[in-house]
Amino acid sequence: MPAEMTEGREIGLRQSIPISSWADLTKAQARHTNTTRNWCRESLGKMGLKTTALRSLNAFPRAEEHLMQKTSSGAAVTILGLVLMVTLFVHELSYQLSTIVVHEMSVDLTREQKLPIVINMTFPALPCGALSLDSIDMSGKHEVDIDTNIWKIRINKDGYILGSEYVSDLVEGEHTSDIAKEEAAAKKAMEDAGHFHHDPLEGESHEHYHENKLFGDPQKVVKDIKKAIENHEGCRIFGVLDVERVAGNFHISMHGLSVYVAQQVYPSVSDVNVSHVIHDLSFGPKYPGLHNPLDDTVRILKDESGTFKYFLKIVPTEYSYLNGVVMPTNQFSVTEYFMSTKAYEQNWPAVYFVYDLSPIAVKVREERRHLGHFFTRICAVLGGTFAVTGMLDRWVYRLIEMIQHSSTRRGVMR
What we know:
Shape: elongated
Protein name: Endoplasmic reticulum-Golgi intermediate compartment protein 3
Low-confidence stretches: 6-17, 166-212
Helix content: 40-55%
Subcellular location: Membrane
InterPro entries: Erv, Erv_C, Erv_N
Family: Belongs to the ERGIC family.
Keywords: Membrane, Transmembrane, Transmembrane helix
Strand content: 25-35%
């Protein structure tokens, strides 16, 4: 719009408004302008105060580049701190990736299950013909000279295999294939090493041999056992024994022989040497970290005879792997007792395992550590290392300054 027209309008407006009203309007506009200017100044002042207060909370103040001094000692401390940080980080990472095992206890609710007993023992002073494995439990079940899923391996005085016996027509359960594979592997290994000796008696079936022990010719049984004793034969017995899930005991003794045969072989009970080595005794499969207290137990008698009794407390256990697989098994504690046998006594020495089941079951499960804990530990480790190296750097710097200042003063005095 042209300036002349604008001025004309303002002149016309002024002429149409009274002078007193025009003065009031001008004053009002001036007051409004001053108020707006003051409000802006106050707002900018408040913002400046807030900015200043916010800057005062800064925990990481920055110094200008020309005010910082880099030293060789600071570089050495920095390298040391970095090495320490990397080492601690690797340690924390390996700790995070490791598996933790959590134990829980509850009442045992297991029902109608068999209790597997895994046996692997060596009797260096007793031949297999004289040994028998017997079991009895509180349900009233009593078995003598058990041969189901049980191997007897004849060994010589040096521990080499001579032969074995196994009943195949009475085998039940699911352990047969594993035991047969173990025996076949043992035989093959001994044959390859030239330590396996074939024996004429090995051709006999175990059923026929077992029948001879109880119902066959006693003189033949006595002769065979005495011959084995003269040859310093021992016996390794191993296998899996499935029993009822109640308290009971199993023992390895000479109870499978008739009284006549036992007395003909051993005139006195003190002549029976039940020295033994327990290679493995467990009540189910093993899980990581489980150690059975009787594994690799050696009990050798020199000039005495007696009965060993092991009192076992079996704890039902359930192990859960990370992948969700659950494995039922058992762990146990043991108390050992030995009772010496005198020549005039009538009880034959034996090795007893008396077991009882705990009403409390243990659940063991594998877990991973939470990722949040890992980050918390990493922040603590890295932050703590940074703070410590900073303090160390200041101490080293001040120590160097003190040494240099002391050297300078000595030079001036000279």
